[in-house]
DNA sequence: AACCGAAGCAACCGCCCACGA
DNA sequence: ATCGTGGGCGGTTGCTTCGGT
């Protein structure tokens, strides 16, 4: 094509942030004349800017119908929904959100929504549940490992983080199932089934319409689950068995279902912002506490990082056995 | 109070496509 | 049919702000 850049040859054209004076010149000119040819506009408006820069400034910030301020919950949901259909077609998404620009939506996606979906265990590109262990690594395992290397821990905070990690682990594993297992089923059996059936996140060959529907319902339900760091201390996972947790998750209610006050869709601010994770390091006076463990209780989690390439039931079984302290809080009186 | 790293966001860059000559 | 131009788009950069130490 060989098209020359629109402004490069214009030596001395100003770049960088716009001043209020420049904004006024641009707004006044467009109000009076319309923008016409963007390439000719700067000269006509008395601006030492490239036409493209003027267009961007107008369409993204100076247009009178621009809506500023925080995105509402509804807007967030709509963006996520549209992104799942349209992908990174920000301009198409923007047409469904009056007053919002593609640039604003794109920035909001990259800085907030993308992380939020990751925190929920949803792949922000495919909008499918993530079943790989990178999910755990991204969501919270590094925090735990960092804490494990610390010489002094806030035990309650660690317990909360461990609970959250356990929840996240189960959340990821449960997504591997093609159909919800019955309540009260043995966790080890579930894990074995998951690893036997594959954890690709794609419908297994031979999946029936009913199974696919169940899968979708399960997926939809998971979208409403709290993210790792949004589990408040007062409502952290109770000391329940993994099987109970499984059944609670899969029944759509239980410990984490809708209306329990833990859902990420209900925060004081009205947004879906995550609550900050609790501090992992204890106050100074607690550092001398004799009950601080001498060895890390996170060995099982550390081993998680070595399992990326070996998805087999034996690996999972070994891992879960190593992490038995996670599944039995009574053993974990640190 | 000063410093530093992380996060947020405005703006830029370069590619692509539609359209008219 | 070809080429040049205008404009749109997604990705990226870098500055500013904020929060923690």
Automatic annotation (TrEMBL):
InterPro entries recorded:
Homeodomain-like_sf, Myb_dom, Myb_TF_plants, SANT/Myb
Biological process terms in GO annotation: regulation of lignin biosynthetic process
Database matches in Gene3D superfamilies = Homeodomain-like
Looking at the UniProt record for this protein, which Gene Ontology cellular component terms does it annotate, in alphabetical order?
nucleus
Please state every residue range assigned to the domain named HTH myb-type.
10-62, 63-117
Which CDD domains has this protein been placed in? SANT
Alphabetical UniProt keywords: DNA-binding, Nucleus, Repeat, Transcription, Transcription regulation
Which part of the chain is the Myb-like domain?
10-62, 63-113
Cellular localization per UniProt: Nucleus
Q: Does the keyword Transcription regulation apply?
A: yes
Molecular function, one GO term: DNA-binding transcription factor activity
Coiled-coil region(s) at which residues?
none
Polar residues bias (residue ranges): 286-295
SMART domains according to UniProt: SANT
Keyword Heme tagged:
no
Q: Where is this region: Disordered?
A: 261-301
Q: Give the matching Pfam families.
A: Myb_DNA-binding
This one is known as: Uncharacterized protein
Q: Which organism is it from?
A: Urochloa decumbens
């Amino acid at each position: 094509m060989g098209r020359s850049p629109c402004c490069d040859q214009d030596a001395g054209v100003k770049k960088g942030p716009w001043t209020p004076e420049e904004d006024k010149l641009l707004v006044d000119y467009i109000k009076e004349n319309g923008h016409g040819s963007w390439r000719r506009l700067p000269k006509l408006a008395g601006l030492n800017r490239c036409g493209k820069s003027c267009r961007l400034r107008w369409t993204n910030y100076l247009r009178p119908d621009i809506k500023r301020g925080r995105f509402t919950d509804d807007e967030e949901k709509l963006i996520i929904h549209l992104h799942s259909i349209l992908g990174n077609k920000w301009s198409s998404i923007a047409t469904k959100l009056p007053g919002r620009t593609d640039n604003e939506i794109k920035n909001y996606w990259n800085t907030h929504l993308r992380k939020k979906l990751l925190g929920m265990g949803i792949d922000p590109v495919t909008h499918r549940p993530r079943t790989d262990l990178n999910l755990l690594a991204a969501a919270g395992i590094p925090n735990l490992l960092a804490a494990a290397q610390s010489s002094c821990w806030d035990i309650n905070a660690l317990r909360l983080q461990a609970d959250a990690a356990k929840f996240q682990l189960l959340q990821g594993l449960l997504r591997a199932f093609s159909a919800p297992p019955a309540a009260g089923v043995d966790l080890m059996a579930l894990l074995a089934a998951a690893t036997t059936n594959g954890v690709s996140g794609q419908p297994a060959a031979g999946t029936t319409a009913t199974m696919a529907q169940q899968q979708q319902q399960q997926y939809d339900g998971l979208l409403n689950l709290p993210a790792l760091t949004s589990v408040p201390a007062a409502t952290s996972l109770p000391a329940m068995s993994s099987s109970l947790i499984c059944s609670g998750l899969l029944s759509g209610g239980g410990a984490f279902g809708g209306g329990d006050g833990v859902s990420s869709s209900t925060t004081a601010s009205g947004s879906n912002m995550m609550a900050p994770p609790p501090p992992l390091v204890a106050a100074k006076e607690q550092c001398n506490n004799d009950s601080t463990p001498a060895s890390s209780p996170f060995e099982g989690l550390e081993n998680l990082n070595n399992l990326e390439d070996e998805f087999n039931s034996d690996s999972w079984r070994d891992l879960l056995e190593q992490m038995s302290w996670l599944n039995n809080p009574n053993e974990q009186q640190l």
